[in-house]
Amino acid sequence: YQDFEFRLSDIPFEPQKNWKQQVTGPRLAAWREEIPLCARYPVCAVLRLWHDLSDKFPAMGLRVHGNLPPAAGRSSSSALTLGSVRCANEIHGWRMSRERIIEVTGEAEWLTGLIGGACAPAAMMTGSPGRLVQVGFFPFQITGNFPFPGNLRIVLANSHDPAVKGLDARNEYNWRVATYRLALVLLRIGRPKWFGPVQHLR
User: Fold this and answer.
1) I need a labelling partner for 184 at 20 to 30 A (CA). Which of 65, 86, 112, 160 fits?
2) Average pLDDT in the 35-57 region?
């Protein structure tokens, strides 16, 4: 990862305004494309926290080191974002709850152009070796925690096809999210009695 330094005053962002409207708007999108891809995740974490804290956000230095390969489908982007949120939380003594950290991390990644959920940070914050953790959202909750069956194995296969979120992979990811939202609209139209009350489809 290359070095990157920024000032909050250099970013076209107003913490008092709506978070989602700003991070999906053209001004921040244009600024995002000018900075290194690896730097976008710590930046989005800082901006999301700044949105909550306004002018109370102090300066800090952050050094990132690890062996999690980027663009390999192993949630390296969420790891960077979550790590940045947790570092800021510890350094400044904000005492954010686990649930709040998960929520903030999921929303922070919207700045990168990925409008998704918070499954990856939830798994990182709640998982433990040899266990299966079942989580739910809206609101976030742990709905189950079970031992992993000893007769099963999880196999990770590397396709060697990088999924760089700054390129076509980002559009493909958002396209899949959009299909769920379009499907819910169509289901509400076709079966309003069944799907009228439904708020989220996954």
Assistant:
1) 112
2) 81
